[in-house]
Design a protein that fits this description.
Number of strands: 6
Order of helices and strands: HEEHEEEE
Strand content: 35-45%
Largest sheet: 6 strands, mixed
Strand order of the largest sheet: 2-1-6-5-4-3
Radius of gyration: 16 Å
Structural class: alpha+beta
Number of helices: 2
Shape: globular
Length: 150
């Protein structure tokens, strides 16, 4: 029997994780900067473009989307823990996502504006003692009127 001696996650830690996550997405930081934010084992991420597994899967997704979207702005609207298990916390996240995209040879870029409703599973890393995302699901993209679409 494995005994979990890790401290429960606090709402503040989860809020800081979400804030840090979206600051990095807006800045298109080097993909290596995400390593401390993601679970080392059993990472699953479900995006509108498809599901990826592990850091290598995330890296492929990230490199693809940072080549498509620019002038991104993520504004957190909600970060709420909904349930806590033995080793994880379920978190409901709503983030307003705005991004531009351009398809050659069109004359102008298009703007996507949507609220992304997400479910995360967050746990404490046994290695770093910091919160990490182990499951990331984009449940729904609620597009603003007139927004471009994926």
């Amino acid at each position: 029997m494995v005994v979990n001696n890790l401290a429960p996650l606090t709402d503040l830690e989860i809020q800081q994780l979400a804030t840090n996550w979206y600051m990095k997405l807006d800045a298109h930081v080097p993909v290596e900067e995400y390593v401390p934010l993601l679970a080392e084992e059993d990472l699953e991420m479900r995006f509108p473009e498809g599901t990826v597994y592990g850091f290598d899967g995330f890296k492929g997704w990230y490199e693809r989307v940072t080549g498509i979207f620019f002038d991104e702005v993520h504004t957190l609207k909600k970060v709420a823990s909904t349930s806590t298990g033995n080793d994880h916390t379920e978190v409901k996240v709503i983030v307003n996502w705005q991004a531009s995209t351009w398809e050659p040879p069109t004359a102008k870029s298009q703007r996507i504006v949507a609220d992304a409703n997400q479910t995360w599973m967050v746990k404490r890393s046994p290695k770093t003692q910091k919160p990490v995302i182990s499951l990331y699901i984009v449940d729904l993209l609620d597009y603003a009127e007139g927004s471009a679409r994926l």
